[in-house]
Amino acid sequence: MEKISLKSPRLLFLLAFLAFCATAARADTLDLVRQRGVLVCGGNPGLAGFGLPDDRGFWRGFDIDYCRAVAAAIFDDPQKVKFIPLSGKDRFTALQSGEIDLLSRNTTWTQSREAGQGLLFAGINFFDGQGFLVRKKLGLDSVKALSGASICVQQGTTSELNLADYFRTHALKAETVVFATADEAIKAYDSGRCDAFTTDGSALYAERMKTTAPDDHIVLKEIISKEPFGPVVRQGDDRWFNLVKWTHFALLDAEELGVDSKNVMEMRQSDDPEIRRLLGVEGDFGAGLGLSADWVVRIVKAVGNYGEIFERNLGLGSPLKIPRGLNAQWRQGGLHYAPPVR
Ligand SMILES: N[C@@H](CCC(=O)N[C@@H](CS)C(=O)NCC(=O)O)C(=O)O
To answer: What's this model's pTM, rounded to 2 decimal places?
Structure first.
């Protein structure tokens, strides 16, 4: 075996590398982001409504607005974000390696993605479930009727795993055809390579628009899984985790309390103690996050509250026309229920 001397360049390199890793593991993300002057966010480059650069390269979408909300909380400027386009397969490595500070890309919260990969989900910002897109003319009315069909699906997603589970547990046969990107999968489906295309219900709305004749396709009513999406950070930096988590809660609390991008400045004069705390008029709830007291004012001024973000990107006024459904506030029969700022 080769001996390594204490002065060996390889040993010195190894020690330097270990020291670098230890520093990176302990690094304070908020400090790094401030020094850099920009937040680095991993986003979806191809999913209308969630993440997609427009013709001029300006990133838009529900997940994109979450990155902008965090940038607004830190810099009072929602444009101080650099977006890194990530595929379903590459998204977690980009976060683990430190290439991005935050992953915000229609990512389903699962146990193994969190506990098994050194990551933390900062909350659930979109409640979804997996569905199927099929040709209307087939006259199908249930997923079970797809037995024996070929189904297009994207690699590295929960959609791929759920599909296998569902067909096995229901003793159905399917030919699964796997693609690296959604574009390839939907093109293959559209060209007739598959009888169905499966993914998150929300993405089916967006992907159907990419087919040559969107009206020739329908989304089956059945949902075969739970797909709770949320922003993701690395483990080991509690303050950063809290900052992202409370940005999400603040967006929800603002909606619940009727604070929006148009009225946020005048709402600072409100007598309601909950609104006064949220907007930093009473108390200092930003300090624990490393932010100034008016952190929520900055967020809401820049991107609006949760409801505004939803409507602009996904809601009935957007091309996707997704109803609030489970994504309504708890008082409206939905599942969104944010802890209070107090
Ligand atoms: N929510 C699921 C699926 C996420 C996913 O990647 N969905 C596809 C839906 S079509 C997508 O966004 N693809 C966009 C792309 O690869 O350009 C997960 O976290 O695994």
So the answer is: 0.91
